[in-house]
Amino acid sequence: GGIINIVGLYFCLGISFTLNESINISRFNSIVNRSVSISLGLAGSAFTGFLSFKNILSVSVDRVSVRSVRFLISSLIPIVGSSLSDAYSSLIGSINLIKSSVAIVGILVIIIINTPIIIETLVYYISFNLLSYLSDSLSVNRVGDVFRVFAGGIRILLLTCIFEVFILIMTTGIVL
Q1: Residue 174 above 90 pLDDT?
Q2: Distance in angstroms (rounded) separating the CA atoms of residues 140 and 2
Q3: What percentage of the chain has pLDDT greater than the value 90?
Q4: Euclidean distance between CA atoms 100 and 115, whole angstroms
Q5: Farthest CA pair distance, the chain
Q6: Whole-number Å distance between alpha carbons of 18 and 155
Q7: How many distinct helices (H) and strands (E) make up the chain?
Q8: Is residue 124 pLDDT above 90, yes or no?
Q9: Is 1 helix (H, G, I), strand (E, B) or coil?
Q10: Is 169 in contact with 110 (CB distance < 8 Å)?
Q11: d(CA 119, CA 122)
Q12: Can you list the positions of beta strands (E) in 21-65?
C-alpha cells in the first residue's frame, strides 16, 4: 500500500506541475527518480548485509553443534559410536542437500511469478517514454511532460518490483 500511495502522490504532483509553465518538470522527475533509486539501493545493501552476517553466524553455530553431536555419539556409545557418528554426518549432508534443492526451487518460483509483472511494467515504461518522445516531436510539450511523469511513476514501480524480487531471492537463498 505505501509505495502505491507514494506513486499516486508523485502522479498528482507531476501532473499539477505540468500545468505551470514556470516549473521544470524534468528536474522534478530526475530528483524523485534518483532519490527512489538511492533509497532502494541503500535499503537493499543494508538488508543483504544483515542477512549475510546472520548467515555467517548461523553456519558457524551449525558446524560447532554438528561436531559436538558427532563427538558425543562416538564417545558415549562404545562399539558402534563411530558408525552412528558417520551416519549422523550423512544425515546432515542429506538435509543440507534437500535445503539447497528447496532453495533453488523457491528462487525459480519467485522468478516465474514476478517475471510477467516486471515485463508488463517494462512495457508500460517503454510505451510512456515513446509517447513522450512522439509528443515532443509533434511540439506538444506539455503532453510530453505528462507522459514523462507517467513514465517516471512507472519507473518507480519497476524499480520497486525488481527490488522486491531481489530481496525475496536473497532471503530465500540465505535463509534456506
Answers
A1: no
A2: 33
A3: 17
A4: 22
A5: 90
A6: 18
A7: 4, 0
A8: yes
A9: coil
A10: yes
A11: 5
A12: none
Q: How far is CA 24 from the centre of its chain?
A: 32
Q: Which grid cell sits at 102?
A: 528447496
- Give me the amino acid identity at 79: I
**Average pLDDT of the chain?**
82
User: How far, rounded to the nearest angstrom, does the alpha carbon of residue 138 sit from its chain's CA centroid?
Assistant: 39
By CB atoms closer than 10 A (0-12, 13-18, 19+), residue 122 is middle
Which CA distances in Å does 119 have to 83, 113, 161? 54, 11, 10
Q: Which amino acid is present at 21?
A: E
Query: For residue 27, what is its C-alpha cell?
Result: 528536474
Amino acid occupying residue 36: V
Contact 168, 132 (CB under 8 A): no
Rounded CA separation 26/148 (Å) = 8
Q: Which residues contact 18 (CB under 8 A, 6 or more apart)?
A: 25, 142, 145, 146, 149
Q: Which helix (H) or strand (E) holds 176?
A: none
Residue type, 61: V
